[in-house]
Write a structure and sequence with these properties.
The chain contains eight helices and seven strands. Among the domains are: 64-180, Enolase-like, domain 1 (2-Layer Sandwich); 203-246, no CATH class. Helix 3 (30-62) packs across helix 6. The protein is 52% helix and 17% strand. It has helices at 4-10, 15-26, 30-62, 86-99, 145-165, 185-200, 206-217, 232-245, and strands at residues 66-67, 70-73, 79-83, 102-111, 114-123, 128-136, 169-170.
């Protein structure tokens, strides 16, 4: 969870912190304090989600296409498929992952004749998301049973990791092609939602606060709270209501 320093750096409004401090000084009742703490927790969680998706979008815009450098051949020597091994992918993107304050772990489980890999991505602000990939064991393969499970698990881990970060691979002759990350409509809506949330939790601008103070002075609105603790959205709502009364 983000501390006060990181929240100040990213610009999250301090109204919950300020209210809690005042509540402590005023020795408010337990019920009021619990509601304030619940509000503070909810705002921090929303901010953490907003930061996760904002930085994930930035990371994906910087990701390079990963070349498929390894080959898997059939028993007769013909090419079966090419792929980029997980260690090669991690080597190419680990600095970007660190730059954008992410960490990850990959868990796995065996379910009958299938294996499942779960990649959990965590952001420094506290929010996490996970991506899983499940694949069946190739019973017809020419490897030993342990090798078949290990091969399937490696495959599942690679795809779970790539899906979690939106990593794309390119064929060996695609060097000159610039590949940009693409998003589904659902992902676009989610990113837009958290972008909107981030803007709404920003502190009110000086222009907004000045306008509200002038309205209070002119007795055009009846506001008893602390103007300095308003968020941008709260200030906007107050000014909208005031304009409608004119």
């Amino acid at each position: 969870m983000a501390d006060n320093k990181s929240i100040t750096k990213t610009g999250l409004a301090f109204s919950p912190e300020a209210l809690i401090e005042k509540a402590i000084n005023a020795k408010v009742d337990v019920g009021t304090m619990e509601r304030l703490l619940a509000m503070r927790k909810e705002l921090k969680e929303e901010w953490a989600k907003s930061e996760f998706f904002r930085e994930m979008a930035e990371l994906q815009s910087e990701l390079p296409p990963i070349k498929k450098t390894r080959q898997v051949r059939n028993k007769d020597g013909t090419l079966r498929y090419t792929y980029a091994p997980l260690e090669d992918i991690v080597l190419q993107v680990k600095d970007l992952i660190k730059k954008h304050n992410f960490s990850y772990q990959i868990n796995s489980e065996v379910i009958g004749d299938r294996v499942k890999a779960i990649c959990i991505v965590r952001h420094i602000e506290g929010h996490s998301e996970q991506s899983s990939f499940e694949v069946g064991i190739d019973k017809e393969g020419y490897m030993s049973e342990p090798q078949k499970y290990a091969s399937a698990l490696t495959f599942a881990k690679r795809y779970a990791f790539c899906n979690a970060f939106g990593i794309m691979t390119a064929d060996e002759d695609d060097d000159a092609i610039s590949v940009k990350p693409t998003y589904t409509n659902a992902e676009k809506r989610k990113i837009a939602e958290f972008d909107k949330l981030a803007k709404e939790t920003q502190p009110a601008t000086e222009k907004q606060k000045h306008a509200i103070r002038e309205l209070i002075k002119a007795k055009k609105i009846d506001f008893k709270g602390n103007v300095d603790n308003l968020t941008m959205k709260q200030a906007s709502d107050i000014l909208t209501v005031a304009l409608k009364k004119k």
